[in-house]
User: Fold this.
Amino acid sequence: MAQPTDWTRLNRRYGNAGSDASWAKVRELYEDDKVVEAWQAAQSLGTGSRGWGLVTLRMVEAEAVSRLASEQVSFGSTLTVEFPRVDDPELAPGIGGMIREVWQEVCLELGLTPELPVVVTVLLPNFDAQWVPGRHGYCIGKNGLTKVCIPWRSLRRSDDLRAVLLHELAHAATRELSHDLMPTWLNEAIATEMEGSLSRQYLMQVRTGRVSWMSPGELEGAFEVDRRDVHADQWVHLAYQQSAAIGRWISGSSSLGRRKLGDVAKAFANNSTWTELKLRVTGQTHADEALREILGFGEKELFDRVRHSIETRTLPMPIPASITES
Ligand SMILES: [Zn+2]
Assistant:
């Protein structure tokens, strides 16, 4: 059992906040990727003050316990892989090399010369569990680095591993390209296009009017639905698929292919102070501004065009091998 935290110093820093202050410290350590220190500090707090922060606590735990059992290997100046020392005869061969290759592929396709460090953490098999948030893999921005965590079970089959890596490393690349300013729907449009997760079944459902086509605001909201809701899975699935169709359209409609998606991401980060001020005053979204800069039209027209291309069967489809029938 860890020692209770002495709040005196923390209260001086954060005001007389008791365990809230300690919890703020846990989050601060986590955001600096000092996950073992964050985990040690969290243990005397249970689930965080008044139960708040349980999701973060589980992520701190998974990343800290995995780090304690891992070795770190650097590939070049920006990529580090944290790999647990676990014997598993079923692992796919050449995993380290594959992580490096997929990172290079993602950077090349999206047009990123990486400078921001990326840490890829393979989580221990113990964290292949229902109660782990983001158990299919996640990408999280921290101070001065981007962290990608991937589940152990994705290491069993090369196809699964490649899909998880393409998706999560695309998030890492677009975070650096866009200075982390993209809305979720566009972020996922790029990641799902890199992964190739658009399903034909979804396109048919849109064509036959069995699923609703969401506006930019509705689509963003669908990613944020309360996951405890019984219909949450359905909404989240539809949100990912609609984003995947949008990513496919942008990439497939340009001779630049996926580089066009990278250009859209970059257009979030190149605004003058004047443009930023204009966005704030007029209420125009960052996405609308970036899309107009790269595609020549904004969010609403993009959504209309993608829907029209699905309805008229003119959505440019990728090589059949990368389409799934889920
Ligand atoms: Zn994603």
User: Anything to note?
Assistant: The radius of gyration is 21 Å.
